[in-house]
């Protein structure tokens, strides 16, 4: 099993910044992709950003130019730097990971963290 633990959420004023972190631990061979989703009250969970172990990134249009995803393969950690935050960014942010379980595994498994609350309000 794999555990994902998020941190860094909190209350911030509009225009402010937060940096989220997610650390993966447990039994696995390799993390293929890590990323962030978010879910606001009454809305569907939506993709925010992803990053592969090779460093390739992908962003939702709503956060391009404001958010930056990065990773540290040696630490099994992914970060989300959030700048110029807006009230509509308020949501629970969930870390996820696509994991190759063993060297001989033909496929991969998807895991989710418990989420961290981000509130943007004056």
3D shape: elongated
Spatial gap, N to C terminus: 40 Å
Q: Stretches where pLDDT falls below 50 for ≥5 residues?
A: none
What fraction strand?
over 45%
Please give the radius of gyration in angstroms: 14 Å
Q: Helical percent range?
A: under 10%
Largest sheet properties: 7 strands, mixed
Number of helices: 0
The number of distinct β-strands equals 11
| Class from helix and strand fractions | mainly beta
What's the SSE pattern?
EEEEEEEEEEE
Question: How is the secondary structure organized here?
Answer:
Layout (H helix, E strand, L loop, with lengths): L1 E6 L2 E3 L5 E9 L3 E10 L6 E7 L4 E3 L7 E6 L4 E6 L8 E10 L8 E4 L3 E5 L2
Parallel strand pairs: 2-11
Antiparallel strand pairs: 1-3, 3-8, 4-5, 4-9, 5-6, 7-8, 9-10, 9-11
Comma- or semicolon-separated keywords:
single chain, four-stranded antiparallel beta sheet, 122 residues, seven-stranded mixed beta sheet, 11 strands, mainly beta
Summarize the structure.
This protein is mainly β and 122 residues long. It contains no helices and 11 strands.
What does this structure look like?
By secondary structure, this protein is mainly β. Helix content is 0%, strand content 57%. The chain contains no helices and eleven strands. The chain has strands at 2-7, 10-12, 18-26, 30-39, 46-52, 57-59, 67-72, 77-82, 91-100, 109-112, 116-120. Strands 2, 4, 5, 6, 9, 10 and 11 form a seven-stranded mixed sheet that branches. A hairpin with an 8-residue loop joins strand 9 and strand 10 (109-112). It is elongated and about 50 Å long. The termini are far apart. The model has no long low-confidence stretch (mean pLDDT 95).
